[in-house]
Amino acid sequence: MSTEERRTLILDTTETLLVEIGNGALTMRKIATAAEISLGNLQYHFPTREDVLLGLLVRFLERYEARFQNPPTDIPKDVVEALKQLFLEVLSVPDFDRCATIYKEIWAASSHSPEMRKALNTYYKRLFAFYCEVLALVAGDKTEPMKIKRASAAMMPILEGYCVTKDALDVPVDQIAEDWAKMAASLLQ
């Protein structure tokens, strides 16, 4: 097995364990056992638990940041409808539930890791810029840049918070997307 394949195995195993047992119960020994490798082999690729989680975070964020490369092109003219479509697209990612669980666990682990916090902050800055770009496309040239920034700043915690609270909510995703779209559109006026 190549080094890259071994690292992928370790990160895949860690991702599965995060979903099954959570960050608090995750240990290097559990990762090694589940990956069917020695603890020494695990530590060769990722010397510490924090290194494994940082590797997982980077991989996780790379998947999502790939979407930032291509803002939507087929945007409805109605701002609320365009925003609803955008929110539905985000909320309807096929593995959203798994990703939300993993994200919560990584986010919790980042509170103890300056490197992970730095990686998340870098991601959030790029996400904010992407939202500003998309909202500028949706809102059109007449909307003031500050309104676009404010709407983007409001969207981020709403989406992030949904990852944490979604299991407790008994509201259909399409209704959530419509409500969020109306809120964001009101900020663009």
Helix content: over 70%
Counting DSSP H or I runs of 4 or more residues, the number of helices is 9
Radius of gyration: 19 Å
**Biggest sheet layout:** none
Q: What string, H for helix and E for strand, traces the elements in order?
A: HHHHHHHHH
Distance between the termini: 56 Å
Give structural notes.
This protein has 189 residues and is an all-alpha fold. Helix content is 75%, strand content 0%. The protein has 9 helices and no strands. It has helices at residues 3-21, 28-35, 39-45, 49-65, 79-91, 96-110, 114-139, 145-165, 173-188. Helix 1 (3-21) crosses helix 2 (28-35), helix 4 runs parallel beside helix 7 (114-139) and helix 5 crosses helix 9 (173-188). It is elongated, with a radius of gyration of 19 Å. The protein starts with a helix and ends with a helix. The model has no long low-confidence stretch (mean pLDDT 87).
Notable traits:
189 residues
Compact description:
The chain is an all-alpha fold and 189 residues long. It is built from nine helices and no strands.
List the helices and strands and how they pair.
Layout: H1 3-21, H2 28-35, H3 39-45, H4 49-65, H5 79-91, H6 96-110, H7 114-139, H8 145-165, H9 173-188
Helix pairs in contact: 1-2, 1-4, 2-3, 4-6, 4-7, 5-9, 6-7, 7-8, 8-9
